[in-house]
Amino acid sequence: MNKQEKTQTIEDLAGRLAECKNFYLADTSELPSETTSALRRACFDKQIKLIVVKNTLLRKALERTNDSEFSPMYVALKGSTSIMFSDSSAAPAKLIKEFRKKNKKPVLKAAYVEQSVYIGDEQLDGLAAIKSKNEMIADVVAALMAPARNVISGLVQNAEKKEGGADASSENPA
């Protein structure tokens, strides 16, 4: 790779990093080619972009974004690194967990999710449990609707009791 190609790669990565709210750094080294292909297919199915990148180029791209939030991730830039870009904050973590049921890797090195940095594979369970914006909205709407449903249910039951009582008194004239 010549200097011009490296510069272009750094610029492309910096652009993706700046526009993407969620990305994961994972170690996918030592995976057989068939397993790597299966991982790429799984990423494609989940709308996750998987890119293998050199650590030096990734570090320069992170620095080029002028985002100091990325600096804690520099410690994870050792060994083989793959970047997983996703619109969903939890999708890559869920994919990694699912994939590791049959394989030792990928191993989570670091993640940048919704303006927060997570370092280390022990963060995987927490990241997989993150709810999406739409899931959170649905939870809030359900919580707000519960009291209204209780009131409506009570009114309906009360009306049914009154109708049942009125029918019983009209059948038995005094």
Relative helix content: 40-55%
- Counting structural domains, the number is 2
Provide the residue-averaged pLDDT: 87
Number of strands: 5
Q: What is the CATH class of the largest domain?
A: Alpha Beta
- Our Rg estimate from Cα atoms comes to 26 Å
CATH superfamily of the largest domain: Ribosomal protein L10, N-terminal RNA-binding domain
Low-confidence stretches: none
Architecture overview:
The structure is a single chain. This protein folds into two domains: 3-130, Ribosomal protein L10, N-terminal RNA-binding domain (Alpha-Beta Plaits), CATH 3.30.70.1730; 131-174. It is built from six helices and five strands; from the N terminus they run H-E-H-E-H-E-H-E-E-H-H. Helix 1 (3-19) packs across helix 3. The protein has a five-stranded antiparallel sheet with strand order 2-3-1-4-5. The mean pLDDT is 87. The chain is of the alpha+beta class and 174 residues long. The chain has helices at 3-19, 33-45, 55-64, 91-99, 124-128, 133-171, and strands at 22-27, 49-53, 81-85, 107-113, 116-119.
